[in-house]
Amino acid sequence: MKVYRLPIVLPRIEYDLGSAELRDLAIKDLDNLVEVLETNPDLRIQLRSHTDFRSSDEFNKDLSLKRAQACVDYLIQNGIDESRLEPIGMGESEPLTLTEDRNGFMKGDVFTKEFIEGIRSRRKRELAHQMNRRTDFKQIESDPEDAKLYGEY
Description:
The protein is an alpha+beta fold. The protein has a single domain, classed as CATH 3.30.1330.60. It contains 5 helices and 4 strands; from the N terminus they run E-H-E-H-E-H-H-E-H. Helix 2 links the parallel strand 2 and strand 3.
C-alpha cells in the first residue's frame, strides 16, 4: 500500500487532554469529510491521530489509536465503508509542523517537547499542546494502476 501527498490537517479535530471524545467542531469537520468521501467513492484514507507529550509513550500510542478509531467509527456510522478507512495512532511521534502562521506561531514551527517547554506564556504553551492533539488524514491507494493517475510510478 502506498501513501501519498501531504497530510491534510482538519483544523477542528482536536481533543481534550487525555480524551478521545469527539468535540462538536470535530463532528462538523467529519461531516465535511463524509461529503468528500461520498463524492469520491474510490478515495481511501488513513486517519492519523496524535497526542501531546505529557503522558507515557505507551499511553499516548493507545490514546491516539482510540482517537483515530473514534473518527473512523463516526464516518462508518455516516455511511462510509470501513474498507476505505485506516485508523493509525501516532502517539507523540510526529509533532505538528506549521505550514502557515497560526495562533501567534510561525510557519515552520515544530511543536516538539523542547519547543513547547521553551514557551514562556502558560496560555500559549497550552495552546501548543492543544494543537498537537489532532487528527489529520492522508490519501492512500492499494492498486498501482490507480497510482499512475497521480504520477506516482
